[in-house]
## 1
Amino acid sequence: MADTLFYSPTLLESSLLPEKESQHCVKVLRMREGDKLTVTDGQGSFYECTLLQANPKQCLVDIQNCIEKPKGWGYNLRIAFAPTKQMERNEWFVEKAVEIGIDRFTPMLCHYSERREVKTERLEKIAVSAMKQSQRSYLPKIDELSQFEKVISEPFNGKKYIAHCYDLPKKQLAQHYKKDENAFFLIGPEGDFSQEEVEKAIATGFEPVTLGDSRLRTETACLVAIHTIHVINSLS
């Protein structure tokens, strides 16, 4: 597979690269007709292609081979998080989470949220870039910002966890999670969840867990949760 990976979610329908990908192909990499390139649809496939038309607005390719690439884990992993005030920290988290491996992000509006709006288009661009950089074939879903109550009411086939800082009974995630289980995490804002939110989450099936002895930043807690799940599943 080529070192540079391109992304086109509609490749099978049109054999065309989006404008941004086409610009990178022609203006940055200086690729020409006849050159070989690899494209992913973000849905689990790599396509080995030949460049037919090197147009910076819309490159046309010929698909010569399809390689199915499993996402790398057999369970579903979702994070609902309260975005931090500094958008750069949210972007950093999304980038690293995609590199590690995740299925779905849900920005969440909580009682103590510092940020009350999120441009998901920017996060999607970060996710696409991280997917290509890490040579993955799956693009995680990124939801629009949702109210806490709506998030906890959504069905999920697997284990549901809420990580909070209150001095209440909690289990160590690393000791409680079982290999191959789907996992859905709620990670709150810098000021934590409100006690009412914790009670509502528990009432709807979320189990309170701790991620360790340190008080973690929101984006750090998200990554610790994701990495813990992957580490447990990697053990024989």
Note: Residues 175 and 232 are 10 Å apart (CA to CA).
## 2
Amino acid sequence: MSYGRTWVLSAFIALSFSSPAYANNPLNSGPLADFLNIFHQQAIPPQVVVWKHPQFKKGDIVISTTERRLYYVLGDGQAIEYGVGVGREGFSWSGTKTVSRKREWPDWTPPAAMLKRRPDLPRHMAGGMDNPLGARALYLGSSEYRIHGSNEEDTIGAAVSSGCIRMTNRDVIDLYNKVKVGTKVVVLK
């Protein structure tokens, strides 16, 4: 196949899959989208770090909003450190929660308080690459807060959310696969 035909075929496939008319776009959510997220370059790549906080046990999640980092405690003096986006001024919080449920490519329904501030938001959005919750969501107790993915990788390391903890899709998939319902989550200021 010539270069011209290859380019036309590639453009056709890209436009076909990005069209709103293509409701079940395999690039939008599911295993293919998960696979493609592996290749995204990350501004703050995860790393294993020394963990000197014995009050937190293996499997706990600790989030430092001032450092804008999430730590998944491995035990034996180690944790995985991930870059995160946190709540902007007036929306940050601290406390202890547990992971109450987990969802892959979750739907999003903005809370009433958010809709009051932003009436332009959709009332409901199906899961997928354009959804603000990204590839995975870990729901925190009965609160409206979540640890979730984001397609806005430039917000990782910033204080920009309405209280949720944002991760890259790649990182949230990794964390999601490690975490069980009932996991302790401690958010520190």
Note: The two ends are 58 Å apart (CA to CA).
